[in-house]
Amino acid sequence: LERNVEATVTYRNAALGLALLTPVTQLSPRAVASFASTAPRLGARVALSGYSYEDKLSAPVLTLGTVAELTGLNGEPGLTRLSLAALPSDAGGPVLADSGSVLGMLLPADLQAPRQLPPGVAFAASAETLAAALTAQGIIPTAAPPGAQPTPNALAAMARGMTVLVSCWE
Asked: Are the CB atoms for 122 and 109 separated by under 8 Å?
């Protein structure tokens, strides 16, 4: 994590593209993500926070987009279809509402294999789906308080606080 913190995988859900990592040494997080308690509306603006260029930049990149659909292409629940230009290394990053609450987690494009989707089509596991998986592991997600609309700079700061660079070796 962040180039110099060793961690082990303590839970893996391949269907969700989700892994929980436990650092070898105890850490104090810069921020704790809060999850949206309601589904986003179609056309809502979102911001994806991810390390688009892997470790070439010192902070995550925010990629802006919109909510295109509240299911997968075949009506699968638990997915949110997004219209945004994600890069492969953005997978696993939080998808944030304008309020800064987590709407979901960007899924790797290869979960759609063997299809190659048009540019700008991405999918996120919904906040509800992630919350259920985390709760099953004994981690109770924090619900986002209603109301506040942070400034773009405050939203970027929130995203930086909850997004970490993860490098994997086997």
From this structure: yes
Rounded-to-integer distance, Cα 128 and Cα 111, Å: 19
Which of the four pLDDT bands, split at 50, 70 and 90, describes residue 169? low
Alpha-carbon gap, residue 166 to 141, rounded angstroms: 21
- Omega prior to 114 cis, within 30 of 0: yes
Question: 12 to each of 17, 79, 166, 168, how far by Cα in Å?
Answer: 8, 18, 15, 14
The whole-angstrom separation of Cα 80 and Cα 125 is 6
Question: What pTM was estimated for this model as a whole?
Answer: 0.89
Q: What is the pLDDT of residues 23-54, one digit of tens each?
A: 888 877 777 788 988 889 999 999 999 998 88
Give residue 17's Cα distance to chain centre: 11
- Gap between the Cα atoms of 39 and 50, Å rounded: 22
